[in-house]
Amino acid sequence: MKRESKKIRIGNVEIGGNAPVSVQSMCNTDTRDVQATVRQIKELSDAGCEIIRVAVPDKEAAQVLGDIKKQIKIPIIADIHFDWRLAVEAINQGIDGLRLNPGNIGKRENIEKVVKLAKEKEIPIRIGVNAGSLEKELAQEEGDLSQKLVKSALKHVKILEDLDFNLIKISLKSSDVPVMIDAYRQIADIVDYPLHLGVTEAGTLKRGLIKSSVGIGTLLSLGIGDTIRVSLTENPVEEVYAGFEILKSLNLRQKGLNLISCPTCGRCQIDLINLAKQVEEKFRNIDKPVTVAVMGCAVNGPGEAKSADIGIAGGINEGYIFKKGEIIRKVNEKNLLLAFEEEFSKLLLEYH
Amino acid sequence: MKRESKKIRIGNVEIGGNAPVSVQSMCNTDTRDVQATVRQIKELSDAGCEIIRVAVPDKEAAQVLGDIKKQIKIPIIADIHFDWRLAVEAINQGIDGLRLNPGNIGKRENIEKVVKLAKEKEIPIRIGVNAGSLEKELAQEEGDLSQKLVKSALKHVKILEDLDFNLIKISLKSSDVPVMIDAYRQIADIVDYPLHLGVTEAGTLKRGLIKSSVGIGTLLSLGIGDTIRVSLTENPVEEVYAGFEILKSLNLRQKGLNLISCPTCGRCQIDLINLAKQVEEKFRNIDKPVTVAVMGCAVNGPGEAKSADIGIAGGINEGYIFKKGEIIRKVNEKNLLLAFEEEFSKLLLEYH
């Protein structure tokens, strides 16, 4: 069901082929501020981020990449627009990947310099087409935007292929989700390079989560996509959490708790919303793939959440703890969370 | 591209056929508490909720439905399990729709009583199959869960069709997103009844948004789905906002602002996250379909957000206001939001 794609490597992370779909993010620090950038990368990598991208707007930013690289453990991608010298400097600084559209570099000889060096050092290049920054002549053509994105990407691909370079990854982003879905679906049938999925300018937290989940989720459901970045106007740590939640929701990755909880209804006798939040908060950093259910009522709860490894169901002034649908313990409501923690800890021990 | 489905009516809301995809929610109040239930329905309806469902666990709850119905403006659906008398009472109380699985009612003569009355009053019935509460004999069978959901739904459908009743709507929910996607995709090809989409027990806010957006969004992208409910362990108002955001992200409905904002990067010189939040907050209740962009930099911002009707882009200690990609005004950073409000108000006047 998954689209077949070529495998490339960004540092020690495989992308494409049979590799798991990886989660990326991008720093929003000033890259030249090495300390702040390294601090953010560590925070993102602690949250699970597998590949990090940084903006390289000028020479000074390019020149500190080696210093940053030394202090971090995940592969780093330099995001470069227009200037071939920045790309060369970034590669010489030891970065693991480039995001660069060769058609925007200008003179052929300069493109060749970058591509030759990238080939030598086995540095993949992501062609990152964005609906908002399409080439003028393409943007003004009649026709469907998704087709234009594909056309633009193929133009960049051809430049690289003509230079016998094929460590390629492609993204076709738009803030319009159907455009982005259509574009990726089209290119998925034309080339076999791995695809980096994202919805651009997705917006503030809740809207951004929704737009990214719809766009990225739809494509992944169709078997398309090898690495993803959720882009949010928020602390990028949220991008990483969201990326993994999208992958987890489609059973493509496992990471930490899978929490299921019912929406509460007229049957619910306990403060379920808070209980679910407390469980989520308390066990955020558990790293075993356990499915935990927090359910409103003991009548339907344990049955509806049979698939959960462990769960809580509310009653009247009391609650139940269940495992795989079977009630194992009845406790007073005020001790519910505590008793749950106890049973949960026992369960976690079984995972060792 | 949209799947063809029969049209039914819940009160004055059309579902299926060429009707827009509608947004539903469910009260989490005790239905017997009429005041609290009516208050929540009004809050949900103010947020845009188009159809509301309430749990009807007992006779007392059924008997207050007429009283609730009188005080609200959106159609109401009674959620009933097992007891045919509650269904009859709910219909007599004037509700607009039922959620009830006829196979769980028991004696044939009792099913007939409910269906006869529903037919007489033209009250549609949603068959709501849920992975957690599958019939025992089905649950224990070998085979794929999504196929079992479909099988269960078709059994209930047959009961209604045999009684010559076809005001049917179907849901096939699971907390496992791929199961839910597969089940809906299968049944979409078998029957032409409208489909109610949802991921059940989706969880707390962020996880729930992601799971629901992936599941519901994927199906809608494929043209499947006539009405949706996002189910969250949260204030149900969030379900309504999320429902519309999913539909807006796929250009299936328009409602209020379409906010796009970039994820901030090393080039960003202003506090974009806060600026975007302020714009979102301030204009939350605008009900014109305006696309607003909040972008980090003046270099790429206006160009990348050309499709936006109006936007802000940050600079160094100053910012820009642009319309359709053209900068129309440059202002000091501290006056940026104010100047934006002024230009935005002018723009809104054009929508009258």
Return residue spans of chain A where pLDDT drops below 50 for at least 5 consecutive residues: none
Q: What oligomeric state do these chains adopt?
A: homodimer
CATH architecture of the largest domain in chain A: Alpha-Beta Barrel
Q: Helix share of residues of chain A?
A: 40-55%
Average pLDDT reading of chain A: 92
Give me the Rg of chain A, rounded. Answer: 23 Å
Structural account:
The structure is a homodimer of 352-residue chains. Chain A has 352 residues and is α/β, with parallel strands linked by helices. The first copy, chain A, is built from 13 helices and 15 strands. Chain A has two domains: 8-249, TIM Barrel (Alpha-Beta Barrel), CATH 3.20.20.20; 258-347, 2-Layer Sandwich (Sulfite Reductase Hemoprotein, domain 1). Chain A is 41% helix and 19% strand. Chain A has an eight-stranded parallel sheet. In chain A, strands 11-12-13-14-15 form a five-stranded mixed sheet. Chain A has a two-stranded antiparallel ribbon with strand order 1-2. In chain A, helix 4 (84-92) packs parallel to helix 5 (108-120) and helix 9 (205-221) packs parallel to helix 10. The mean pLDDT of chain A is 92. At the A-B interface, helix 8, helix 9, helix 10, strand 11 and helix 11 of A face helix 8, helix 9, helix 10, strand 11 and helix 11 of B.
Concise summary:
Two copies of one chain form a homodimer. The first copy, chain A, has 352 residues and is of the alpha/beta class. In chain A, 41% of the residues lie in helices and 19% in strands.
